Amino acid sequence: KEVELREIDTMKLSLALLASAFAATSAFSPAATKVSISRSSTSLNASRNRDKVASRSKWAESRGYGTVAVAEAESAAAGLMTNDEGLEYVRLANEAGDTSDIYLYGGVVTSYKAGGQEYIAVRPDAKMDGSKPISGGLSHCWPQFGPGEIQQHGFARNVNWTVKSMTDTTVELEMAPSDYTKEMWDKEFLCTFTVALEDDKLSTKMFVENKGEESFDFQAALHSYFTVSALDNFSIAGSFAGKEFLNKMVGEGEMQTEDREEITISEEYDRVYMGVNDPVLKDTGSGKSLSVMNTAGYEDTVLWNPYGDEGMGYNDFVCVESVKFDPVTLEGGNSWTGDMALKAGDL
């Protein structure tokens, strides 16, 4: 009983720390105003964030909460940050202690922690220095999915996106044509990617505009990596049964029909399920589920796993990708939206 009481006291201290920290700083106010970001104001934001983290750490230490509590206070801080390799990313944080990280390089969401559980995976062989696209996260495939007329999966995943606006719980990134993109795809486009850390889910919106007069075609996908405790514990539910899929692991690709209602993975996978956009990930090892809610634009699901490849960490993730496989023809002045949200739950 004494051990239980000590554990309860520790939990109370941690909760008191979080409650006091959130009350003491307006950075976590739900009414935080949206601010425009330039390079100079971005640097100022980063400086302010460091000050905010230092202030919280000092506050926690002065009350004797210890190094664990200090680390929790620091990890909950929101703002623009830089990784050890020099790449900038935005950390979102809400009052529940959930967080999400979004890298400017590639505009890729690399983390979503809810209730202490990480749901987004980054491969152990990923390069986090900008030398190549980040292997993991919710990676953009735009304006092309897979191989084709331009480079594999397009260019959105290996260019720097610009922070258009941000709060503690939302960020709006923008990608416009550059000399680099025009060399391979000379179209007048503007892409805006918005990520919102809500109380019960992580929401994303890909907004594509044709700023020119001539139409252009594109494909769009979020090449999403999700964590698994182990493939033996993992399955994917959804409207798979009876649907046709392209199995890229057979010859040069073969159309097959799925007869399972839940998908399990025990071999290398690269499958395009047409007309399936409601996957639910189930992990008996963690006791968690994750609903991938595609509510606009994304009509198909791709399942990918490099089964047996230890270097890629095959047993720790599965790609369940939100895809618009058939090309979209976007007329001049028109726009397209892809909405995808992640909602965690218990099994």
Describe this structure in words.
- Helix content is 18%, strand content 39%.
- The chain is α+β, with helices and mostly antiparallel strands and 347 residues long.
- A hairpin with a 5-residue loop joins strand 2 (79-82) and strand 3.
- Helix 2 runs antiparallel to helix 3 (66-75).
- The longest helix has 24 residues, at 39-62.
Question: Which features would summarize this protein structure in a list?
Answer:
seven-stranded antiparallel beta sheet, disordered N terminus, alpha+beta, 4 helices
Task: Provide a brief overview of the structure.
It contains four helices and 22 strands. It is an alpha+beta fold.
What is the helix/strand order? HEHHEEEEEEEEHEEEEEEEEEEEEE
The CA-CA distance between the termini, in Å, is 30 Å
Over all CA atoms, what is the radius of gyration?
Answer: 21 Å
Number-wise, the strands total: 22
Record the strand order, biggest sheet.
1-8-9-10-11-22-19-18-13-16
Count of alpha/pi helices: 4
